[in-house]
């Protein structure tokens, strides 16, 4: 539903909907081509690569990801949960005198709680970050893959370029000059 | 390009003239090909052991813990020994993927996938033992802090046994998502490579629809880095907490402040030994010698040397401090004169021999790089580390503070059966993994190909660091059946580097045809059986021939054999050529009568 809506909006923004798929067979060539394409003021919609190409996100002008910050916040949440849980269980609800160490206050008994505080911090930080990653990148079981060419998970690099309002022939010629090995027009 | 520079003094991590496509093919081959006979034999043995273990577990649970060899003095024995042994083995995986990622060690990429798989499977086995040892495993949920019907009686958060529950479940689950996230791009590669609709469906589900967008990769890398940062203290905490199970008690030999670092080092030591054991076999069986090289084995041996050294220092310290304390109780701990000469002398000396003496041979470089010797040492360390835990638990308990309660422990067949069952279970999981998962993180290996691949290193040595390999060695699909025909094919001339297609083809063949003689043989063979012209012909699926997998198909393609027609024209003379040129061909063409098979396939 949301996917359809998104596609519809994209269609309205990009009325003709025409894109060119340019395939490259080398990562260094791809980097160079991406820089040249952006310098020539063509708009790159998306790039599909079989492995992480370092510096490609910067070359495309993508904003850095904030997942690490998320993870830090999730970690603090986990630490808070651990503290509140053990304070309730060990200090408030049923305080016991274990081995001559009575449970009067959380702070006094805290050294024994450090392992669980640590484990739950890591648990929350790791799992919630990964779930956030899956949600943001829209990957989950039974999700259909969206790479336009199966070779992009093997050894090909696909650049999707917005072709609306451009002379297709000139754009094609330009892309060949950047070293593309195949170019396809997607209506 | 200069950005891929790596000091020439470093040995290559990927051997051979590999392209990105070769990496995909060779890592997908064990998954897409068929299992051979030895796989089925080993799998059957593991399965039988596993079933035997299940039988013993059922017997234990239905009859009671009394079927084990435990007695009033020795209330922990094989079960906890096995638990600590398996948890320890489960340490190498996350160490390789997390700690070595933070240290930017490129060699980890060839081994991390399998090491993480080993970690997860080993922690499964470890988790079984405390649960069985509860006697009433259906009440295992009592270890969780949940409201219950006993008033508000909660679990005890002061107890290291409860810390263990949290540590190990966090470790298992975080290792699992770390592993799976790394697997997504590799599952996607197999999904896009397979021709079987069932596999396509399955790997489509497993890969979560991974598409490889640049933003996904940016997030992927960040997530990997942060998970590594989280998993590094986690992996250290897990065995620290396992050691607290002992160190917070008052039993002589257990009540020791060096236990946490010593246990962590011992865990890494045994974990790497198990990684060596598994990978030395797997690289051979799955044809991955180009990716898991002798260099990788040597690096792991160096980690074994370091952690083995730490463990040895801990042994000596324990022995010395026990003696120096002058306390008579300390003379019966597992590292003492009393233990070395007492009734458990054999267990003491097994520990010293396996963990201290034998690993010292790895200081010799030629032995460190000797695969057979490494395999032997790894097996010995696995045994030695089992004895270490046995010694800590059984020897320390056997002679406590009251001489009247001194006792010996002897295992029953159930103790042994459960242990063998977990080994069987472990290998069942690992063997299934080796047939269905991409066992090397191929997406990551592709990122280091240009910096650490043998071919690129050689090109840099020949042409200088600033040479642009992109144009000289653009990969051209040797396999015309892959993908759809490019509508723009005639315009290829725009690509300056690939206009000379003949030369590129030649370089792809070089891997197999390394001498002039072999080239002449192949040319003569092609003259007899016919050549393949991609412009007018389409390639056939050579994998339909008996025992031909993706790897063999690729090799045939490299020789210029693409169609059933060519193979149906083959005679004994041509089989001889294949025998000579393709390693491990083993006369299979004659054995399976390829010519007849191909003639049948051609006419269908």
Structure described in brief:
The complex is a heterodimer of chains A (187) and B (604). Chain A is α+β, with helices and mostly antiparallel strands and 187 residues long.
Summarize the SSE layout with pairings.
The complex is a heterodimer of chains A (187) and B (604).
Chain A: H1 2-13, E1 19-24, H2 27-39, E2 44-48, H3 56-59, H4 67-93, E3 97-98, E4 101-102, H5 106-136, E5 157-162, H6 168-177, E6 182-186
Antiparallel strand pairs in A: 1-5, 1-6, 2-5, 3-4
Helix pairs in contact in A: 4-5
Chain B: H1 20-32, H2 37-63, H3 78-89, H4 92-102, H5 108-133, H6 160-193, H7 197-206, H8 214-247, H9 259-285, H10 294-325, H11 337-341, H12 345-357, H13 365-368, H14 371-398, H15 413-436, H16 442-452, H17 454-463, H18 469-472, H19 501-509, H20 516-529, H21 550-559, H22 564-568, H23 572-581, H24 588-591, H25 594-602
Helix pairs in contact in B: 1-16, 2-15, 3-5, 3-9, 3-14, 4-5, 4-8, 5-6, 5-9, 5-15, 6-7, 6-8, 8-9, 9-10, 9-14, 12-14, 16-17, 20-23
Could you please describe the fold and organization of this structure?
The complex is a heterodimer of chains A (187) and B (604). Chain A has 187 residues and is an alpha+beta fold. Chain A folds into two domains: 17-50 and 155-186, 2-Layer Sandwich (Alpha-Beta Plaits); 67-136. Chain A has helices spanning 2-13, 27-39, 56-59, 67-93, 106-136, 168-177, and strands spanning 19-24, 44-48, 97-98, 101-102, 157-162, 182-186. In chain A, β3 and β4 form a beta hairpin. In chain A, α4 runs antiparallel to α5 (106-136). The longest helix of chain A is centred in the middle third of the chain and has 31 residues, at 106-136. Chain A starts with a helix and ends with a strand. The mean pLDDT of chain A is 89. Chain B is mainly alpha-helical and 604 residues long. Chain B folds into two domains: 18-144 and 154-451, no CATH class; 501-604, no CATH class. Chain B has helices at 20-32, 37-63, 78-89, 92-102, 108-133, 160-193, 197-206, 214-247, 259-285, 294-325, 337-341, 345-357, 365-368, 371-398, 413-436, 442-452, 454-463, 469-472, 501-509, 516-529, 550-559, 564-568, 572-581, 588-591, 594-602.
């Amino acid at each position: 539903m949301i996917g359809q809506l998104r596609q519809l909006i994209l269609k309205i923004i990009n009325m003709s909907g025409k894109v060119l798929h340019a395939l490259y067979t080398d990562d260094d060539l791809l980097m160079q081509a991406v820089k040249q394409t952006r310098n020539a003021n063509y708009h790159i919609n998306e790039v599909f690569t079989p492995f992480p190409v370092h510096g490609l996100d910067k070359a495309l002008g993508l904003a850095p990801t904030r997942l690490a910050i998320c993870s830090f916040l999730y970690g603090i949440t986990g630490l808070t949960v651990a503290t509140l849980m053990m304070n309730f269980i060990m200090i408030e609800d049923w305080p016991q005198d274990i081995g001559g160490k009575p449970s009067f206050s959380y702070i006094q008994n805290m050294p024994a709680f450090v392992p669980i505080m640590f484990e739950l911090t890591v648990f929350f930080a790791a799992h919630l970050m990964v779930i956030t990653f899956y949600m943001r990148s829209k990957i989950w079981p039974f999700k259909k893959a969206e790479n336009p060419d199966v070779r992009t998970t093997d050894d090909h690099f696909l650049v999707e370029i917005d072709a609306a309002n451009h002379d297709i022939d000139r754009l094609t010629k330009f892309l060949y000059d950047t070293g593309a090995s195949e170019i396809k027009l997607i209506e | 390009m200069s950005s891929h520079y790596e000091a020439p003094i470093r040995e290559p991590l990927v051997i051979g003239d590999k392209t990105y496509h070769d990496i995909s093919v060779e890592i997908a081959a064990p998954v897409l090909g068929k299992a051979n006979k030895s796989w089925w034999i080993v799998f059957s043995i593991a399965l039988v052991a596993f079933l035997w273990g299940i039988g013993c577990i059922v017997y234990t649970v239905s009859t009671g813990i009394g079927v084990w060899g435990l007695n009033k003095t020795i209330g922990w024995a094989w079960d906890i020994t096995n638990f600590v042994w398996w948890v320890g083995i489960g340490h190498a995986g996350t160490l390789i993927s997390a700690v070595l990622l933070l240290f930017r060690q490129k060699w980890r990429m060839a081994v991390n996938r399998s090491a993480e798989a080993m970690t997860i499977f080993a922690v499964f086995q470890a988790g079984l033992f405390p649960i069985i040892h509860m006697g009433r495993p259906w009440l295992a949920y009592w270890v969780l802090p949940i409201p219950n019907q006993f008033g508000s009686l909660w679990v005890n958060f002061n107890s290291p046994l409860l810390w263990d529950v949290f540590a190990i479940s966090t470790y298992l689950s975080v290792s699992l998502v770390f592993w799976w996230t790394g697997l997504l791009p590799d599952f996607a590669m197999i999904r896009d490579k397979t021709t079987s609709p069932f596999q396509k469906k399955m790997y489509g589900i497993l890969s979560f629809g991974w598409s490889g967008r640049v933003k996904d990769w940016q997030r992927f890398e960040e997530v990997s880095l942060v998970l590594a940062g989280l998993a590094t203290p986690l992996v250290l905490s897990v065995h620290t907490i396992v050691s607290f199970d002992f160190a917070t008690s008052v039993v002589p030999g257990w009540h020791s402040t060096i236990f946490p670092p010593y246990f962590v080092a011992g865990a890494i030591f045994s974990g790497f030994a198990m990684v060596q054991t598994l990978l030395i076999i797997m690289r051979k069986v799955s044809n991955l010698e180009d990716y898991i090289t002798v260099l990788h084995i040597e690096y792991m041996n160096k980690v074994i040397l370091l952690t083995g050294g730490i463990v040895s220092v801990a042994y000596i310290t324990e022995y010395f401090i026990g003696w120096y304390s002058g306390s008579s109780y300390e003379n019966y701990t597992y590292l003492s004169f009393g233990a070395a000469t007492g009734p458990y002398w054999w267990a003491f000396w097994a520990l010293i021999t396996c963990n201290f003496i034998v690993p010292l041979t790895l200081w010799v470089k030629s032995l460190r790089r000797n695969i057979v010797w490494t395999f032997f040492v790894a097996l010995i360390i696995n045994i030695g580390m089992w004895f270490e835990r046995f010694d800590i638990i059984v020897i320390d308990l056997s002679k406590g503070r009251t001489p009247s309660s001194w006792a010996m422990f002897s295992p029953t067949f159930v103790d042994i059966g459960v242990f063998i069952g977990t080994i069987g279970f472990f290998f069942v999981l690992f063997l299934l993994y080796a047939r269905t998962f991409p066992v090397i993180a191929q997406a990551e290996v592709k990122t280091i190909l240009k910096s650490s691949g043998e071919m690129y290193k050689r090109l840099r040595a020949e042409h200088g660091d600033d040479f642009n390999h992109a144009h000289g060695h653009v990969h051209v699909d040797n396999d015309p059946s892959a993908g759809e025909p490019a509508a723009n094919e005639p315009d290829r001339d725009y690509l300056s580097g690939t206009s000379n297609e003949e030369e590129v083809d030649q370089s792809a063949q070089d891997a197999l045809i390394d001498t002039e003689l072999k080239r002449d043989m192949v040319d003569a063979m092609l003259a007899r059986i016919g050549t393949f012209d991609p412009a007018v012909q389409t390639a056939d699926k050579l994998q339909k021939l008996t025992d031909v997998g993706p790897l063999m198909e690729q090799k045939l393609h490299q020789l210029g054999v693409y169609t059933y027609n060519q193979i149906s024209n083959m005679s004994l003379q041509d089989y001889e050529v294949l025998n000579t040129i393709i390693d491990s061909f083993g006369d299979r063409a004659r054995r399976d009568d390829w010519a007849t098979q191909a003639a049948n396939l051609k006419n269908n």
